[in-house]
Target: Oxidoreductase
Amino acid sequence: MSLLFQPIQFGRLKLDNRIIIAPMCQYSSKNGELSFWHEQQWASYALSGAGLCIVEATAIRPEGRISYADLGIWNDKHCEQIKTLLTKIKTISPTPFAIQLAHAGRKASCDTPWGAKKGQYQPDESKGWQTLGPSEIPFQNSDNLPIALSISEIKELIDDFAVAAQRSVEAGFELIELHVAHGYLLHQFLSPLSNNRNDEYGGSFENRMKLTLEVFEAVKKVIPDNFPIGVRISATDWVQGGWDLESSIKLSKALEKLGVAYIHVSTGGLHIEQKIEVFPEYQIPFAQEIKKSINIPVIAVGLITEPQQAERILQAQQADAIGIARGILYDPRWPWHAAAELNETIAIAPQYFRFQPRGSNHLFKTYPTKID
Ligand SMILES: Cc1cc2nc3c(=O)[nH]c(=O)nc-3n(C[C@H](O)[C@H](O)[C@H](O)COP(=O)(O)O)c2cc1C
Model:
């Protein structure tokens, strides 16, 4: 029996299998609102057979968006729109949905990847804004200087994460992931390369991780007891003198004490001079080391493209669940194909019941849909 298709528990949430659709920005919003693009994308995720779908980095405030086209959850209209969509999604699939709550900090105010500035910082007034950060250190020299958050602004930021979390629960998400990775605001506070504050939020390791822990606690306080909160981190900045694996292990342990449901292990994104040698599974050693140090699930992600590869990572106890991002864009039925390859059963909508892969008749079971 494969491990990939064994259930796993993230806090109180039980997943049918260990395939996690990793968060992917769609740059398809106006004013942070859902568009038809999201409707088709989320429905596609819901029918994929994945154990959990984590939707894209979703801004807790307008200026926390990476680009003007990012999804947001900073007002009641966003919450209502998402609630309507998730209610529809529930009629076609039981797949749980999670939101990734984010603030881009100094890496905000960028263009979309396919815009004229190709994902780079753009100060154009109609599409850009003043960025914020732990310190006045830009991501790259061509960016405007971010404004360093004052202590009272940090407190407001923490409150806004908490309000966004309340809205996320109200909207129908079953798990919240905090985005502490890829060089965005919470990661910017963690790394000594982007945080040179000399107050209680900078300097020592404890001070630099304080904001992440406070956001976690503030979120936890305002949502139902045992509602699962996961955290995505970059386990290294890939730059000498930056955030590293040792720091990540310490942070993971601190989050475990506070009750985090899992640690999702990515890397990089903080510094323009990062040197990453990218090859299949290049981030797995980080997940493995973190897994050895804590007793909660670890999600591994990054160039995991084949079902057998995912299975081997789990069998080797390098991780407890597998994040798939681009693999799902390429093959939205990746989990079906993984089930077929690993000779496993996966639940599908009855509308698809006549499909049997490769002549087999035992790989699918159906779940009930609620279509009138
Ligand atoms: C189009 C796209 C958008 C992404 N957006 C996000 C995001 O919103 N939040 C995040 O943490 N990572 C984001 N990522 C990173 C992915 O979640 C994932 O970590 C990365 O692509 C490596 O996994 P893969 O090799 O399976 O694609 C994005 C990746 C892609 C390709």
Summary: The pocket of flavin mononucleotide is lined by residues 22-25, 56-57, 100, 179, 181-182, 232, 266, 301-304, 324-327 (CB under 6 Å). The chain has a mean pLDDT of 95.
